[in-house]
User: Fold this.
Amino acid sequence: MRLTQEMSKVEVKGFEARYYDRLMDLITLGYYPFFIRKAIKDLGLREGEKVLDMGAGTGRNALLMRPFVGQSGKIVGLEIGKEMQEQFGQKVAKYPNIELKDLRIDEPLPFEEAFDLVFISFVLHGFIQPKRDLIIQNAYKALKPGGRFAILDYANFDVDKAIWPVRFAIRKVECPLAEEFIQRDTKQMLSAHGFTDFEEHFYFGGYVRLLLAKK
Ligand SMILES: C[S@@+](CC[C@H](N)C(=O)[O-])C[C@H]1O[C@@H](n2cnc3c(N)ncnc32)[C@H](O)[C@@H]1O
Assistant:
């Protein structure tokens, strides 16, 4: 099957967007809040760091990152979904060091050596490979030398051998791009763009991975 960007479900809209956080909690039987707290702790953020959150969603992740970077740090979220932008705005209203920009991550971005960490959570799998490559290039350019790129997304595994709820989620709920992403070696994808020094953390029985790489 030839994969096209039109098959993607990554631009979350309508009901799914309005109730996104609650739906994630529900689908994971209440485990999501524990998982996401752990994953954000595993980013190893430090006081004063600047973070770029690509496809920032409702702002849930930005709020969780905020205590780690403190008042001297900064978080910039990039998000194009109107419902997501509204929720992000409401959540972070009282924090002047969290900012939202209405920018597409799959088009060239204006940031150069400005961030310590670029974070992309459950977004990269939803793009065709040329767009993934452009997103990775954007991340590389946006990072300071020695900065980290953090991909929280599906790990690389054999979907045929996965437990049935995972197979069901990937083949019936997700778009076909997700399975293609799972089968592609993500580390190789990053190495091709100059990233090195990989660090991995696994969740949900190894089906989800936080992959950290250095510029
Ligand atoms: C599956 S959600 C993940 C949201 C958030 N990162 C999280 O982990 O909760 C994907 C998000 O990426 C946003 N998105 C999709 N395509 C985008 C693009 N080209 N540029 C910026 N944001 C995009 C969607 O609107 C949605 O909020």
Remarks:
- DSSP finds nine helices and seven strands in the chain.
- The domain at 5-214 is CATH 3.40.50.150 (Rossmann fold).
